[in-house]
Amino acid sequence: MPTPNTSDTGPEFLPHVLREYALLADGERGALIGPHGDISWMCAPRWDSDAVFSSLVGGSGTYAVTPLDPRHVWGGFYETGSLIWRSRFITGEGPVECREALAFPGEPERVVLLRRVLATDCPARVRVVLEPRGAFGGDSSSHIRQHDGVWTGKTGPLHWRWTGAEAAQTSRDPDGNGELLTLELTVPLGGHHDFVLELSPHTLPGDPVDADTAWAATEASWARACPKPPETLATRDAHHALAVLRGLTSSGGGMVAAATMCLPERSGAGRNYDYRYAWIRDQCYAGIAAAGAGATGLLDSAVGFVAGRLLQDGPELKPAYTVTGGPVPSEQTLDLPGYPGGTDKIGNWVNQQFQLDAFGEALQLLAAAGHVDRLDSDGWRAVQTGVSAVEQLWNRPDAGIWEIDDRPWTHSRLSCVAGLRAIAGLPGAGRQVARLTSLADAILAETSRTCLHPDGHWKRSPDDPGVDAALLLPPVRGALPADDPRTLATLRAVRQELVRDEYVYRFRHDRRPLGEAEGAFLLCGFMMALAEHQQGHTDRALRLFERNRAACGPPGLFSEEYDIIQRQLRGNLPQAFVHALLLECAGRLTEDPLPRSQRRPV
Q: Residue 430 pLDDT > 90, yes or no?
């Protein structure tokens, strides 16, 4: 484990490979901790605010608790069913642990970051560095002072307060543009020492947060919010996926697609995006998975947010929103070098897109809620709004699940068919069944007329004969039967053209080998596991599931893509929809698949 670069004023923490980062999250914001105990990414006060620690993407500002022994190796683990992380370093003197969490559930306008150094086997000697720098490093800390052992300061519009560091000293930061606080600390054997950092755009309350009280409340809140799911194929991983999804979900119900922005999917390819917003599709995947796992709190959040957006915007539904339901800002660049291989952008061009499949996914989510009696009157009104929108818009070209050029994408139409059929299957559908079924049949018939390949599988669109792994999911969701020839042919085509070593690629970009164009998409790997399971191909489904759930680092976090040659995570971290599909797979793959009498060779 290489040590951080050091200068006369303190260490400089450089980016690491993504598998070495752990996530802290409280629903309102998230932080990434690197292998030297360095918090190298956190936006404050909200997910889409400017970063106050941004060394991950070439900015500045950090908060690190690092063993003094330079010869140390890193490890750690999450406490079960939570995002309380235990950094564990093995040094020449013995283990050093630091328990870390954002106080949970988070307050929208105040960050409370808890760090507890533990001397479990030997005295714990650590070096602590704090330098909050708002505006992605552009705002140095000022007005730094200590009173009664408590440090306070400002960075841009944010007020901050730090307790537990009475003996800290101020010094100039390495670039000479601000001040940082440093402290060397020895915790005696069997003891612990707490640090509490608070940040807010408002003047902080008179009394600092009490560490013991905050830790107890955080532990209890995680236990309530993330109870153990039913036994599944991978119960521990399913429980962890629930915790990640809950940590990414705000008090208003919106769930960010990822905690980070602009981590490149491919070095130098320009594919790096800001995912600190709530995508309707991703939220629906999470809600459907939560319904299957009995996680009603997470399901209710998804239903409330998605239904609220449908009722707010109707046929003008956007593909993504801020977690408070506001518009996603337009994309712009930052004057930062970015994570290696990428460039820094904030905002997202999704705000200019129409994505038809979002309506279909929304209807599938609302139907899943209805089947477990979690659909209220607003939910039913959202159902009617969604059905009317599909009726009006289904023949309109859209950007599709992969957010590219506008075409009549097959996946988008089939997602709507699945959503309509799912609503028709609810006990409360009543006299709407005929309307829903007729509309679903009409969309399916037209899609079959224009988007069916001569070989019998679904084409990506009428003018694109290629195979797309996203087309595996609509039959799983009920768009058409599992034993339909089009379902079987599409599964066979994906297996032949888009699978390598049980990893699945989205589609073929060109004649290059699949792995040269982009990484394998873990979302697609789990989709294919569901599709194989639906056909009764248990061995194939399990191989896909096990292969894809191993594509993470020690903290068990998944990115969007996986480079199967270099075995590296690619893209933003953690990617919520991958965790959602893992959760769904873990439950579904324990259920009985298609009855043997209905199976056909594929």
A: no
Query: In whole angstroms, what is the distance from residue 458 CA to residue 460 CA?
Result: 7
Q: What pLDDT was estimated at residue 32?
A: 98
- Look at the alpha carbons of 98, 103, 104, 108 in this order and tell me if their dihedral is positive or negative: negative
Digit-coded pLDDT (tens) for 96-120? 999 999 999 999 999 999 999 999 9
Cα–Cα distance between 255 and 130 in angstroms, integer? 29
Where helices occur in 314-454 by DSSP H, the ranges are 357-371, 377-393, 410-424, 433-451
The DSSP annotation for 435-456 comes to HHHHHHHHHHHHHHHHHB-TTS
CB 38 within 8 A of CB 62: yes
**Nearest alpha-carbon partner for 134 in 30, 50, 46:** 50
- Rounded distance, CA 50 to CA 274, Å? 12
Q: Are 325 and 308 in contact (CB under 8 A)?
A: yes
Which whole-number Å values give the CA distances from 197 to 145, 149, 151, 301, in the listed order? 15, 13, 9, 28
Give the separation between CA 112 and CA 102, rounded to whole angstroms.
6
Average pLDDT over residues 430-442: 95
Give one DSSP letter per residue of 25-81, joined into a string: E-SS-EEEE-TTSEEEEEESSSTTSPEEE-GGGT---EEEEEESSSSEEEEEEEPTT
User: 3-state class of 95 per DSSP?
Assistant: strand
Say yes or no to pLDDT of 340 above 70.
yes
Q: In this structure, are strands 503-504 and 192-200 parallel, antiparallel, or unpaired?
A: unpaired
Coil vs helix vs strand at 551: coil
Which residue type does 304 have?
A: G
Beta strands in 329-410 (DSSP E): 332-333, 345-346
Tokens (6 digits) for 119: 């001397």
Euclidean distance between CA atoms 45 and 28, whole angstroms: 8
Task: Give pLDDT tens digits for 535-587.
Answer: 999 999 999 999 999 999 999 999 999 999 999 999 999 999 999 999 999 99
Average pLDDT over residues 48-52: 97
Q: Is the pTM of this model over 0.90?
A: yes
Q: Is the pLDDT of residue 43 over 60?
A: yes
Helices 280-293 and 235-247: crossing angle, nearest 10°?
A: 140
> How far is 179 from 191, CA to CA, in rounded Å?
30
pLDDT at 591: 85
Helix (H) or strand (E) holding 410: helix 410-424
- Nearby residues of 343 by Cβ (< 8 Å), 6 or more positions away: 262, 270, 272, 333, 337
Per the DSSP assignment, residues forming a β-bridge with 199 are: 111, 160
pLDDT in tens, 278-298: 999 999 999 999 999 999 999
Q: CA distances (Å), 531 to each of 293, 444, 536, 546, 585, in order? A: 19, 19, 9, 15, 10
Question: CA distances (Å), 434 to each of 158, 250, 429, in order?
Answer: 56, 38, 10
Question: How far from chain centre, in Å, is Cα 298?
Answer: 14
Instruction: Write the pLDDT tens digit of every residue in 255-282.
Output: 999 999 989 877 766 678 899 999 999 9
CA dist., res. 265 & res. 273, Å (int): 9
Rounded to an integer, what distance in angstroms lies between the CA atom of residue 387 and that of residue 392?
Answer: 9
Beta strands 141-147 and 169-172 are unpaired
- Rounded-to-integer distance, Cα 50 and Cα 43, Å: 5
